[in-house]
């Protein structure tokens, strides 16, 4: 497919290249990055991370479904642009990451009340909250395929350990 304005096509391809790199950076972010350096994040920061990630991915998906962006996609497809597959993959990756974040939020949110109690309780009260907390984590592991990755569960346990050490 040819296009009457090759400069327009080149400009769109330049935008696509930039988007792919920017969005790839967003998609590569994970809660584990909070542990870099001297940071000792707590488990509620994990929930904040996933809440923010879901919101950001919602905004990205909305932008990628804008009429102008869809028109660009159609032009790239019709003109058989070499960048169309990368754009299509990027859109699919955003959609997949969004669904993953939604799934994680559904399953990790029940931890919040327990973590808030644990964060505020006295040291001597901690033992009574550990069994229900572990039960919720087991349910998270069993029912949420997106969270059933060793690096994610290890991060959560590190955050819980940080909380307990701080108490």
Automatic annotation (TrEMBL):
**A GO cellular component annotation in the UniProt record:** axonemal dynein complex
Q: List the GO biological process terms.
A: microtubule-based movement
* Domain (Dynein heavy chain tail): residue spans on this chain: 10-166
A single MF term (Gene Ontology): dynein intermediate chain binding
Q: Domain of life of the organism in this record?
A: Eukaryota
Q: Pfam families, alphabetically?
A: DHC_N1
What PANTHER family does the record tag this protein with? DYNEIN AXONEMAL HEAVY CHAIN 12 (PTHR46532:SF11), MALE FERTILITY FACTOR KL5 (PTHR46532)
Record's protein name:
Dynein heavy chain tail domain-containing protein
């Amino acid at each position: 497919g040819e296009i009457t304005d090759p400069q327009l096509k080149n400009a769109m391809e330049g935008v696509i290249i930039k988007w792919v790199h920017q969005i790839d950076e967003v998609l590569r972010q994970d809660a584990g990055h909070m542990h870099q350096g001297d940071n000792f994040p707590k488990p509620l920061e994990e929930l904040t991370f996933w809440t923010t990630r879901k919101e950001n991915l919602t905004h990205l998906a909305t932008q990628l479904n804008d009429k102008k962006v869809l028109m660009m996609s159609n032009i790239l497809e019709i003109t058989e642009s070499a960048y169309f597959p990368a754009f299509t993959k990027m859109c699919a990756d955003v959609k997949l990451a969004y669904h993953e974040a939604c799934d994680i939020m559904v399953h990790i949110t029940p931890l919040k009340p327990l973590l808030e109690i644990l964060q505020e309780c006295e040291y001597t009260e901690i033992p009574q909250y550990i069994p229900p907390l572990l039960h919720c984590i087991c349910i998270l592991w069993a029912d949420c395929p997106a969270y059933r990755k060793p690096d994610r569960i290890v991060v959560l346990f590190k955050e819980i350990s940080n909380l307990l050490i701080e108490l």
